[in-house]
Fold this protein.
Amino acid sequence: MSNNLLKRIGAGSKYLVIAAAVLVFTGWFINTPPGLLGKADAIGYAVCHRISERSFHIGSIQLPLCARCSGMYLGAVTGLVFQSIIGWKRLKIPHWSILALLAVFVAAFGIDGSNSYLYLLKQISPGILPNIPNLYIPNNTLRLLTGSGMGLGIGVMLFPAFNQTIWSDGIEKPAISGWKWFGLLLGIQLVFDLLVLTESPIVLYPLAIISSLGVWLLLSMVYGMVWVMIMRQDNRFTKLRQLWLPLLAGLTIAMIQTAAVDALRFWLTGTWGAFPLGK
């Protein structure tokens, strides 16, 4: 693609992105359940099974994401915000020893998820896989904790990748420059998880909103990076306000993805609730 063509596309792209964002959000807003939690449910509906027994509740109201997904997106948001505060524009990933611990978190996420899925299969289809035992009885506490660990890993890796794509004046240092900072991040996330486990509505209401918006945040960052690379604007930004167009484009694509999955899932199941489970 020639530079002249890219310039012409770039000149008109902001109007197209704004128009697309307005149209997509309006359509999604009109066709999703009413209320703030209803809209959060529609976001969670696109990425999560939303099985009631595997989710936290505010009274009789189920949270938009299951316990594992709530932990994962809460952990990712925590990791991104933490790094933005202590290491703005830093480009490098943490020391390999920190990455090794994050790999353990990812493995724990996979093991607990697999064990939990096996347990579900045996519940809905008695007699299936009788020779494969469960390692333990899964529970929402483990789902939350392993999800949080996975989320921290996503946040820690996405932050420098985003910075490497965007900034022209990035800093050649890791945002998490040692175990002191990583330990602080772990401590903060553990406090958040313990607060969630109190199942207090004062905690669960913000969790429902933050974890749901975390879905759009992660997708917007990823698709924003893709937009920047397609437009050949890599490493040309110096200020956050300059990113409004790539991030709006990323958010618009994220909303399109969410709306498409919502529509397909609703067409298949006819409900905004969990995937129907056979007995």
Observations:
- The first strand starts at residue 57 and ends at 58.
- The chain has one domain: 3-269.
- DSSP finds eight helices and four strands in the chain.
- Strands lie at 57-58, 61-62, 90-92, 171-174.
